[in-house]
UniProtKB/TrEMBL annotation:
The keyword Transmembrane applies. The keyword Transmembrane applies. SUPFAM superfamilies: Restriction endonuclease-like. InterPro entries: Restrct_endonuc-II-like, Restrct_endonuc_IV_Mrr, tRNA_endonuc-like_dom_sf, Type_IV_Methyl-Rstrct_Enzyme. This is Restriction endonuclease type IV Mrr domain-containing protein. GO terms for molecular function: DNA binding; restriction endodeoxyribonuclease activity. One of its GO terms (biological process) is DNA restriction-modification system. Keywords: Membrane, Transmembrane, Transmembrane helix.
Length: 233
């Protein structure tokens, strides 16, 4: 559009100059003047043709600005997010520890602790728990730290699992009773390490017996009260 207006302006200016020139041209010199008129008219015609052929600028659709700090945006609910499983009620019936997921297994073990007299029982398992899945106070007042391992029958708990728990249960969590409960079994090196450091191991069979009330709870096991380390000097 700007280019077309410029061409028109040039044409008008040229035409004015032409009129002024013709007015002062002597007789017999109209040949060059006529040629100049034709050039100016050709420029005007070309300018108008260019104006008609120039495509219009495409309209840019307006975009909504991003929401400000005081505006509320819709948030879709996350599909598949299930609420945390409730702590089961133990009224004498056996609990299927393998039917629940890993987090539910921590709750069933915590429910056993509550059933057998523990107080201030908390399920603290999750990222960064450093092995303390269940924290409770035993009936005799000792601090109980339980790690829960819901493993398949063909996946025993190894010594590395016990060593990691042994490195935090006493020094970090202040356990006076440290217990590892699993739905599976323990390897021989794991049992040996647990006996050395004073961790009570409860395998799948022992867990079933504890759940059914056929055996006392693990904090009543003699290994649940480890001897303090000897002090040098």
């Amino acid at each position: 559009m700007v280019l077309a207006l410029g061409l028109v302006g040039v044409a008008v200016g040229g035409l004015a100059l032409l009129v002024r020139t013709v007015w002062h041209v002597p007789d017999g010199a109209f040949g060059p003047v006529l040629l100049l008129v034709m050039v100016v008219l050709a420029a005007v015609v070309a300018g108008r043709a260019a104006t008609r052929r120039a495509p219009g600028r495409a309209a840019i659709p307006a975009q909504a600005p991003p929401p400000g700090p005081d505006e509320v945006t819709a948030v879709l609910p996350v599909e598949g997010a299930a609420p945390a499983p409730p702590v089961p009620r133990l009224d004498g019936d056996s609990v299927d520890h393998e039917e629940v997921d890993a987090y539910g297994f921590e709750h069933t073990v915590a429910a056993l602790c509550v059933r057998d007299g523990c107080t201030r029982t908390e399920v603290s398992g999750g990222p960064g728990d450093l092995g303390a899945d269940v924290v409770a106070t035993a009936p005799d007042g000792r601090r109980l730290i339980v790690q829960c391992k819901q493993y398949a029958a063909d996946n025993p708990v190894g010594s590395q699992d016990l060593q990691r728990f042994g490195g935090t249960c006493f020094a970090v969590h202040g356990a006076e009773v440290a217990v590892v409960v699993t739905t599976s079994t323990f390897t021989a090196p794991a049992v040996e390490y647990a006996e050395t450091i004073g961790i009570v191991c409860v395998d799948g069979e022992a867990l079933a017996a504890w759940t059914d009330g056929r055996t006392p709870p693990p904090w009543e096991d003699p290994a649940a009260a480890p001897e303090p380390p000897d002090e040098a000097g």
